[in-house]
Write a structure and sequence with these properties.
The protein is an alpha/beta fold and 299 residues long. It has eleven helices and 13 strands.
């Protein structure tokens, strides 16, 4: 089976990253040389995705502008003979088609996915959160493994999961495996942000999902929470409750998830990606070591 379509929700307000996100989407914040969402797109394309629907909101036009062709910029770079830089911004080379639709009201991730129903049609599709990068420099084959599991297990849903420290389960959606969790396992229950000690495991949902079209009916059956939001995890839980096959694929250690949801994780991700930069990483490392040594002396 080949899954060619992905829905990328990018409509959130990004309140935990204010004031940086007051006038730009958090998905457009740079991590080293690229905005977050560019890493996401490059990962998806490298795993066979050919068409991507961004579910946007107000103040998200810069995402559309970023992936659009800019003839004036291209002309300026060509005239300056900056071919390397030209290649960095030529998204036509990705051979992917980009589409956009707006989520007019912030009604949760489930509602955002529902906006992709006409786009997905009757085919299985991927959902990738636009603020989560899998693997350093988005080098990950997790989506391809998920596609294989979706096909071989005849699943209704496949979710990427990662191990998190037990004391941090309250920050994530946590899955309950049917049996001992190896690299691939069946999910029987999901708990949204359980307290430490109450979580059914330490396996957190990692921002990548594959769904059959039945997910849209499940979302429509979900009642809004106290904030008026439709939670995607509740729709997946309905699948579990009805005995549908919901599978998980565990990320490898090399496929660390960079969840750019708050400033500590953003700072850490930026530094790790900058240190890995083939051209500037070593120089940055020396500067960072000097700054750390200086702060240790003055502390």
């Amino acid at each position: 089976m080949v899954i060619k379509s992905a829905v990328v929700p990018v409509a959130g307000y990004g309140t935990r990253l204010l004031p940086a996100t007051k006038s730009q989407p958090k998905e457009m914040l740079p991590v080293a040389r690229k905005p977050i969402v560019q890493y996401v797109v490059e990962e998806l394309v490298s795993n066979g995705i050919q068409q991507i629907l961004f579910v946007t909101g107000r103040s998200k036009a810069s995402i559309e502008n970023h992936f659009d062709h800019d003839p004036e910029l291209f002309r300026a770079l060509q005239e300056a003979n900056k071919q390397d830089m030209l290649k960095e911004v030529d998204f036509e080379d990705l051979k992917a088609n980009f589409f956009y639709t707006r989520q007019p009201h912030q009604k949760g991730l489930g509602d955002a996915v529902l906006h992709g129903e006409n786009f997905a049609g009757e085919e299985p599709f991927l959902v990738a959160l636009g603020d989560s990068i899998l693997g350093l420099n988005a080098v990950s084959r997790a989506v391809s493994r998920m596609v294989e599991v979706f096909d071989s297990k005849r699943a209704s849903c496949v979710i990427a999961v990662e191990e998190v420290p037990a004391q941090e389960t309250r920050h994530y959606g946590i899955v309950q495996p049917e049996e001992a969790a190896d690299g691939v396992f069946r999910i029987v229950n999901l708990v949204e942000k359980p307290l430490p000690g109450e979580a059914p495991s330490n396996l957190a949902i990692a921002g990548r999902y594959i769904f059959s079209p039945v997910i849209f009916d499940m979302i429509r059956r979900v009642e809004p929470d106290r904030r008026g939001e439709i939670q995607l995890t509740n729709a997946i839980q309905l699948m579990c409750d009805e005995g549908r096959r919901v599978m998980a694929v565990k990320l490898s250690p090399e496929e660390k998830r960079y969840d750019i949801g708050n400033f500590p994780s953003y700072f850490e991700s930026f530094v790790e990606f900058a240190l890995a930069d083939p051209e500037y990483g070593e120089g940055f490392r020396k500067v960072l070591e000097r700054l750390v040594a200086k702060s240790a002396v003055t502390a």
